[in-house]
Structure formats: C-alpha cells, structure tokens
C-alpha cells in the first residue's frame, strides 16, 4: 500500500501520560507523535508509523479473505497500534542516532514499527487481564467482541488471539527488517528477551495481587521494571544502537532506559490511581480495583494509615482511598522516587556520545514523564 501524506502537523491533542502530541494526518487517520522533537526524529517516527499502518492494512485485508469478524478484531488492533505517542519507535531512532540529514533507514523504520506493535499487543492482552472496558475512549477488543456476540468467553478469546497475532507480526517484522544477518539476529534476540521479561513482570504483578501473597519491596520494584522498562525503554534504545552501529553505547543507553522506564512506571502507577479516563485512556482507579501491588501501594502498606486505605478500597470508595494515599505520604514518596530516576537519567544522558538532537529527545521524554508525576 502506498503512503499518501495529505497534510502535515494538524493538531495538538489532549494530554495523556506523555503530555500533548503532534497529530500528523495520513489517509484520514491521525498519527500522534511526541511533541517538541527535533524535526529528523519527527520524520523518522512518522516513517515508522506509516510503515506499520501499511503493514497492518495488508494483514487486515488478508485476514478478511478468511473471516470478516477476525478482520474486524485485527482492524481494532491496528487502531490501538496507531494510537498513543509512538514513544518506543522514537527511542529506536534515538538509539540509532543517524546523521541529522540522513533519511530514515529501512531497518530502523521496521524495528521501530515492531516495538509499536509489540506495545499494542501487550495493551490488548492487559485489557483482558484487567477486564478493562475502554482503551483510549473506545471499547476494548474483548468488550467489543463480547457485545457483538453476547458471549463474554468469546470476547476474551478474540482479544487473546488478536493480541497474540500482533505479537507474532511484530516479531516477524524484526526478523525481516533488512539489516545485515548478524545484526538482525542480535536485534531479534534483544526484542524477544524484552518480550519475555515483560511477560514475567506481568505474571509477577498479577501474582502479587493475590490476597495471600505478600511480596517484598524489592520484588515489587523488579516486577515494575520488567513489565515496562525492558520493552519500552531499554530494548528500543539498545536495538537502535545495534542498527546504527553504535554497540559501545548500549550499556549506557540501557542504564538511561532503565531509569526512564522506572520513572515512567511510577508515573503510570500514579495516573492509574489519580488520572481521569480522558488522560489515561483507561478505566479509573484500575490499580485499586485489581489490588495491584505497585510501589505506590507498597509504600502505603508500610504506614499506619493502610488499614483505612484497605477499607476504602474494599468499599470501593475511591475518593477516600485517594485522599488517604496522599495523606500517608505514599504519593509524595513515589513522586520523589520518579524524580530521582529522571535526574539520574538526565545526568547519564549528558555523559553519552549521542548527538545533541538525540539527547534533546531523551530530555523531552524525561520532561513529559516528570509532568505526569504531578497528580
């Protein structure tokens, strides 16, 4: 499918976790990209989103030849993949750090698109796990399929298949990215390891929510890092560095990614409790509803106020739970932890050999995360 750009920057959309985004309209859809990026990174991220869109359109068309209902689920997956700010795709291009006037490299473009699709697959599966009804203002795939069929099990099955199909396609994109064979294999290994780490982190997160399980603070923080930082920050930067032939930068980039990812997850935990659906795109108070053992909750559990917080959660009095979480100091501590991670990431970024535009992207990401901790 050909790429047809009908206009350039057209709008600024409402804030979500990473702040406002620039909308680039392509074929009657709006691709939202993080704001305040140097022009080359806007262009490179836009190239990746266009690649992903065209790839998914072909996939939907192929599936439609077999079953229209399956194609409808795949099309919903495509809308999820095309939403958001394409942070992970941008970070692949940051890691590659091509010359400022260089056009988007095909392998960079493909791998960046794969990380976007990997993220979409996890969102689809997370929505099933969390029984969320909405995602970015639309019904989730399992809710849509359930309402269409009148069968909840069918809806969950469709979403699991759609999420798994997206994961499979993302992996195939990496395997066929067009980089030299040795580089492709290294990138594929990093990609699949990050995928595996995220699955383990999600399992730990679910397991920690059981009432009879009392995870240590160290395990809670490990689960938090594995489920988000590995695939959202560390692996995109490292894969980009491999593609851009900067392997010596990988250890430092992974450290930066780990601190950004830790701050990101802390901000996400805060938004999951205090954010509105308009901002987060998710059902409100989700972490409280599902008794998630996040660092925020772990801090609250160590305070004398916890019994009152737990009672408010059990009674589904979300406003009271939110007020008590603030009063006990848990919100302040999570915010401070996130700020410390961001300060460390900024210091590490200043020490890297990244170009000034690439460092500017990381600074913009850090600033957006910092803003998201203010609840």
Automatic annotation (TrEMBL):
Top-level taxon: Bacteria
Task: Write the signal peptide boundaries.
Answer: none
**One GO-annotated biological process of the protein:** isoprenoid biosynthetic process
Q: Name one GO molecular function term.
A: prenyltransferase activity
InterPro entries, per the entry: Isoprenoid_synthase_dom_sf, Polyprenyl_synt, Polyprenyl_synt_CS
| Cofactor(s) it depends on | Mg(2+)
> Which key words tag this protein in UniProt?
Magnesium, Metal-binding, Transferase
| Pathway where it operates | Isoprenoid biosynthesis
Family as reported in the entry's similarity comment: Belongs to the FPP/GGPP synthase family.
Q: List the PANTHER family hit by this protein, alphabetically.
A: GERANYLGERANYL PYROPHOSPHATE SYNTHASE, SHORT CHAIN ISOPRENYL DIPHOSPHATE SYNTHASE
Q: What is this protein called?
A: Polyprenyl synthetase family protein
